[in-house]
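Hi R.,

Here's the chain you asked about this morning:
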Amino acid sequence: MAKMIWRAVMLAALVAGAGCKKEEAPRADADFYKKTQEALIRAKPGAVIELPEGRFQLDRSLSSTVDGITIRGKGLDKTILSFKGQTQGAEGLLLKGNNLTLEDFAVEDTKGDAIKINGTDGLVIRRVRAEWTGGPKATNGAYGLYPVQCKNVLIEDSVAIGASDAGIYVGQSEHVIIRRNKAMRNVAGIESENTKYADIYENTATHNTGGILVFDLPDLPVQGGKSTRVFNNDIFANDTDNFAPEGNIVATVPTGTGMMVMATDQVEIFNNRFRDNKTVNLVIASYFVSRKPINDKNYDPYPEALYIHDNTFSGGGDSPTGLAVKLLALKLGKPFPDILYDGIVDGKKLTAQGAMPEDLRICIRNNGDADFANADAEHGFEKLSRDLAPHDCSHPSPEPVKLSGVAQ
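And here is the predicted structure, written out as tokens:
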């Protein structure tokens, strides 16, 4: 009997110990890493690096600086590079070099950015998935697909999920096309930042904190974002709580923002479908709403020469989120208007009649029964107005983006 009791106690202890056992990091596929990294190092311009079907566990970043290479898998759900438990480096892929093509694979659970491309002229990202599989967490990597200071960029038919900053991000770049992608459960689904000549179209942005952001920010080497067209996108049910680490600019984006334009000029927004975004469908804002200091005297914090037309709006604005937003809700009531403008303008540019010059006006036309509010944020909402008449104007459309050296 004593032996039976002892065995029962030992069995209970083993079961309890198993329940408390710490999860071990998956074992890295060292052979796959070695072969792939060697292929990246030894590649010559024009080389195609084929990644086989399967899930491959990596514990360190892959990198290349070779021009003209293609990295190709067997499909975004068939070739999966998992960096769960990554111990060296931060990115999954870190690439430099011109004329790069990435297609048909996935990168999951990197410690930092999933795929970062720096300083490239000529880039195609096609049918690539970047995902953090544990759901929205501040410890997720910042960016999914992340070209920065690049030219002639095409991102198409790709997927980004779970980034703690932006799922699909193009920053300080020019001549960019972002089309037919899906961005879900990121802080920012798709973000164009300090970028010139960008077309963002036929994308789906849903269940992010903010669906699509077009920003121009200070204190960056490249400023003056402009000439962006955002059209034919589905931007709906963006409602994920903001999980960006404190201090990030996107941490200021209210949960449930369909689209936000901040401090950027010459943006045309048309033929989009906005629906059921928790706080507001479309926000136009100066940089001052971030409440961050501006140290660069050359920075222009005002959005100007916007043209918003022929979009459809339905639902949304029923659950405004964030302290400042809730204070504004006391003035506006609920639901929030479909189009919300902070109303802050550069007083130095006003005409003698107190209006913005024609070429700098914010124009809003032909958006069905969408409602609007100018919050007059600069004066504590004192002259809040719902009158669209001051914005009944138009601007010439920016030219469609043409990429040099990249087949469109």
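One quick note: Helices lie at 2-20, 30-42, 323-332.

Cheers,
M.
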